[in-house]
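Kindly review this record before class:
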Amino acid sequence: MGLTCMIIAPIIIYFLISNAITHIKAGGAKDINQPIPWIIIIGIFTPIAIGLMIFGYYALKGEYENYTEE
């Protein structure tokens, strides 16, 4: 599962940026064609994706296997 999280995180960031480049148009009238919503979306989801990658790293190292219930 850790490896899956580590692979998914950069893919998410790549797709967000590539979709932003594809959808931003100078004369676009819709909200999806404006750069500000894309900057906000990328700004919010990039730290989430980085956190997913960090979680995957620790899961791959086995840090979550030593959990004891008290």
User: Anything to note?
Assistant: The chain has one domain: 2-63. The first helix runs from residue 2 to 23. The chain has a mean pLDDT of 87.
